[in-house]
Amino acid sequence: MRFSSKTVGLASAVITVFIWTGFIVIARASASRGLLPLDIALARILGASAVLLPWAWWLMRPARLAGQSVGSLGGLSPLPLAPTVQAGFLGGLLYAVLAYNGFFFAPAAHASVLMPGSLPLWTTLLAWLVLREKVSSARAVGLGFIVLGDVLVGGASLLMAFDGGEVWKGDLLFMTAACCWAAYSVTVRRHGLDAVRATMAITAFAFVTFVPVYLGLIGMGVLPTHLTQVPWTEIVFQAVFQGVGSVVISGITFTQMVRHYGPVRSTMITALVPGLSALGAVWFLGEPMHWNLLAGLALVTSGILFGVRQAKPAVVTPTLAVGGKA
User: pLDDT confidence of 86, banded at 50, 70, 90?
Assistant: First the structure.
């Protein structure tokens, strides 16, 4: 059975928004389920690797049989070593480590504003600095809204730090994670990398660098872990959702969504994620929704929509996770 382009586009949009929203809510809920932040990052990397590394090997098989030298990291990455290391460090390793640590300090509603909400801000600034892209007046106004929204949320938690609060630590981690993902996106655009191959490369880099080092440090007793203290079903769930769902499935559906709706309309669709994930945090996690969070969400969402309202079609940028923002 073949589905129409409209059906595929709509289904891809729904799946992408659902996974990106679920990433924030589930990652925050996981902070109280037993696993430590690096444990969740490990599950994410292993889950994504189980799908993407065999796929990458098969993708490069014809070239290898023809005697060509392709890929790097022992044939795990389909990209040369330099872009694999650069993109993998930013998008495959730092983003996950920073984001998951952030959920252990700050609520999901803060992540809703400061991760997917501030991503356009960091991406535009880095594209201006690195790629010398011009910033239109409409986008500049939209970025101003996003900055105000971030200040309303992050500024309040920073003031509470003087009373011993630690939410500001999570907010800072969320902002840094969004900056890392924006830097990864700019790297992909700078090198003209294919979305699927780039995702395979960053997963391969994280698998080769993070997994053996983390397991080795655990074995030597240097780092704590709760991998042996939780049911195996929890580890499998994190590997499936955080790895296969947030990295692999949302990466494919996001690309399909952009192909059907274009980059501008796709950005407007994903602007639903901050509000939906904040509502999910209230509904499923019982988080309070203070006035500054509501105002911050409104400003960030307005900033995203205003910034793309008059934008011209551009080359698709593979942003594959808010999750991850994915």
Answer: very high
Predicted pLDDT at 161: 65
Provide CB contacts within 8 A for 277, sequence distance 6+.
20, 21, 24, 25, 108, 109, 111, 112, 116
Question: What's at 298, amino acid-wise?
Answer: A
Q: Which residue type occupies 37?
A: P
Instruction: Supply the pTM of this predicted model.
Output: 0.87
Q: What is the mean pLDDT of the segment spanning 155-164?
A: 69
What's residue 263's pLDDT? Answer: 63
Separation of alpha carbons 251 and 185, rounded Å: 13
Count CB atoms within 10 A of the CB of residue 67: 6
What does each C-alpha distance from 157 to 43, 108, 167, 232 come to in angstroms?
Answer: 30, 14, 6, 35
Nearest to 225 by CA among 46, 236, 216, 209: 216
Minimum mean pLDDT range among 183-187, 261-265, 318-322: 318-322
Say if CB 23 and CB 324 are below 8 A apart.
yes
* 116 burial type by CB count under 10 A (0-12 exposed, 13-18 middle, 19+ buried): buried
Name which of 167, 26, 40 is nearest 96 in CA terms: 40
